[in-house]
Automatic annotation (TrEMBL):
Pfam families documented for this protein: GST_C_3, GST_N_3
GO molecular function terms noted in the UniProt entry: transferase activity
Name of this chain's protein: Glutathione S-transferase, N-terminal domain protein
UniProt entry tagged with the keyword RNA-binding: no
CDD domains named among the record's database cross-references: GST_N_Beta (cd03057)
Residues annotated as domain GST N-terminal: 3-84
Keywords: Transferase
């Protein structure tokens, strides 16, 4: 059995969420960068572990393979509750956490799965880019709904309770529709993202993955 976790990822992608979670657990872990859009030995290795060819893909210490960021977050919480990735069992905030964790993964995430490469899903359509033209406004509507659910009683999405939802926010505020859009339409989410980026445990990671993040002095 290996002693460390190994994360296959792409800087700035959803794997950054899992990287941040691993940092908070304090577990030993390694990172392997994979460009999942380019044929390479690294991508072939990824495909052997994850037929979808997606990141994050996490190799556990016993060599079990985990995919799907929400599943990984829940597993890491079970193994490292001290990281506070998920509210405790029975906590009043747990249903809210689970609802919005699934909302991100089941509603918002697919807008990128299908919108990033519309020609893949509409190969016989003359104008596949129109899929993104439809998905873009829908994604914005989803983010507005998510932002409206953020608590105003504390610094985090759940109020005074930090959770992995804040990690998702910090990473995904850098994706389309873009940081400027979030500043204008979802400022509460940007404020959460900035707090996460400046956490001492995570600042170096976010600085390495996103150009705009200033390192702590």
């Amino acid at each position: 059995m290996r002693e460390a976790y190994t994360l296959l990822g792409c800087r700035g992608c959803g794997s950054t969420i899992v990287a941040a979670a691993l940092e908070l657990t304090g577990f030993p872990w390694g990172y392997e960068e994979v460009d999942y859009d380019v044929d390479s030995p690294e991508r072939d290795r990824l495909l052997a572990m994850n037929p979808l060819g997606q990141v994050p893909t996490l190799i556990l210490p016993d060599d079990e393979i985990m995919t799907e960021s929400a599943a990984i977050i829940l597993l890491l919480h079970d193994r490292a509750p001290h990281a506070e990735l998920v509210p405790d069992a029975g906590a009043a905030m747990l249903p809210r956490f689970l609802r919005w964790l699934m909302f991100i993964n089941c509603a918002i995430y697919p807008t990128f799965t299908y919108g990033d490469n519309p020609e893949k899903w509409l190969p016989k359509t003359r104008h596949p880019e129109r899929l993104e033209e439809t998905i873009g406004p829908h994604r914005e509507q989803l983010w507005r709904a998510f932002a409206a659910a953020a608590s105003d009683t504390g610094p985090w999405f759940l109020g005074r309770t930090f959770s992995a939802l804040d990690l998702y926010i910090a990473v995904m505020c850098n994706w389309r529709p873009g940081r400027r859009w979030f500043v204008q339409h979802c400022p509460r989410l940007v404020a959460i993202a900035e707090r996460v980026e400046q956490l001492p445990e995570l600042n170096a990671l976010f600085h390495a993955h996103f150009d705009h993040v200033a390192p702590l002095e």
